[in-house]
């Protein structure tokens, strides 16, 4: 009789092990897309926000990188032309260089002969316009960073409400169903937080890049104003 009980015990252990292996295999076969889709309808706006953030980040990153490229010969050419009294040639150099700095200096060169304050004002206004072009749509990343986590929490809350509604209808608590339902609904929160963190990082990376471009533009514009203050110009 004890031998039979021992065999039954071994069979039960083997059965549990087989079920565990099958469950693990099922979990491994669950790919990322299927896992995300278990988060419910709230995943649709979260995925849209992720796509929007990626498009804005890479578009702005490429644009700012182009604007940050320094033309080492630009200031030297402008300086030599201005010192020689060839303002038209200096303006032509600015027009041939498709950069924010060149467009700023062109505004200043067009006002040479007027008071320095007027030239500084023209360069400053042109600089503000160029900076606004660089910062275009960057604030949307900040909005995404704030909205995405909240959407994730909303999705999780609605999921939890649905779980307890099902418990009420069933008239009892099934720990397996509740824990499994919570695991699925927490996907929305994790996804929202991930998108929010990525958007937050992208927002600050782009702002730091813009600040470096602004610093270089300010440095070169000060050098240009000092050039105009030199005797003989």
Automatic annotation (TrEMBL):
InterPro entries per the UniProt record, alphabetical: ExbB/TolQ_transport, MotA_ExbB_proton_chnl
Q: How does it sit in the membrane?
A: Multi-pass membrane protein
Q: Which residues form the MotA/TolQ/ExbB proton channel domain?
A: 98-218
Q: Indicate what this protein is called per its UniProt record.
A: MotA/TolQ/ExbB proton channel
> Where does the UniProt entry say this protein principally localizes?
membrane
| Superkingdom of origin organism | Bacteria
Cellular component annotations (GO), alphabetically ordered: plasma membrane
Which parts pass through the membrane? 39-58, 138-163, 183-206
Subcellular localization(s) per the UniProt record: Cell membrane; Membrane
* Pfam families linked: MotA_ExbB
One GO biological process term is:
protein import
Q: Which family does it belong to?
A: Belongs to the exbB/tolQ family.
Q: What are the alphabetically sorted keywords of the record?
A: Cell membrane, Membrane, Protein transport, Transmembrane, Transmembrane helix, Transport
